[in-house]
Amino acid sequence: MAENLKPAVKRAIAPIGKSARTLTVGMDSVETKVVIDEADRAAIDSPAGLTVDDERPYVVEISELDMQTGACHAAIADEPERRYPARITDPAVSLPNNPYVLSMAAKTALAVRAKATYRDGEIERLFISNTEDRPRGEPDFELR
Predict the structure, then answer these.
(1) Contacts for 91-95: CB closer than 8 Å, 24+ residues apart
(2) How far is CA 17 from its chain centroid?
């Protein structure tokens, strides 16, 4: 049955990363809902062997940032010689002088929250959702 549902699952997650950041599965009356984000979509779309880690803190140095798509490369502080492909899913990345672009321009480390996708026990990609110094739901900028 699960095998037969794969095409439907792929169609359901298709908007994630394009016109939606997440897909929530569950009714409002249920406390526990499943939220599928871009890291989860990458694992679902990928051939077997890809897993998604829980969101956790990282300290990264960002390079090659595209402010429109959030695509970038990031070196993790523990292993500065290796850069990983990454995507910043935080909507703030498209704003002028955001923490990501300022950190990249200054070549300084930035504390972030991210999920990592792993293949064969090795990080394949990071999905950065927020800077560590800004709690979820609290903007660090003012829209005018």
Answers:
(1) 91/21, 92/131, 92/139, 92/140, 92/141, 93/65, 93/67, 94/67, 94/68, 94/70, 95/141
(2) 10
Q: Can you say whether the dihedral through the CA atoms of 101, 107, 112, 114 is positive or negative?
A: positive
* pTM tops 0.70: no
- What's the sign of the alpha-carbon dihedral 2, 126, 93, 134? positive
Residue 49 phi/psi, 5° resolution?
110, -10
Tens-digit pLDDT profile for residues 40-75: 887 777 766 778 899 999 999 999 999 988 999 999
Rounded Cα gap, residues 16 and 23, in angstroms: 7
Residue 85 contacts by C-beta under 8 Å, 6 or more apart in sequence? 71, 73, 124, 125, 126
Helices (H), 14-54: 38-45
Q: Which two tokens stand for residue 52?
A: 């998604």
One-letter amino acid identity for 49? G
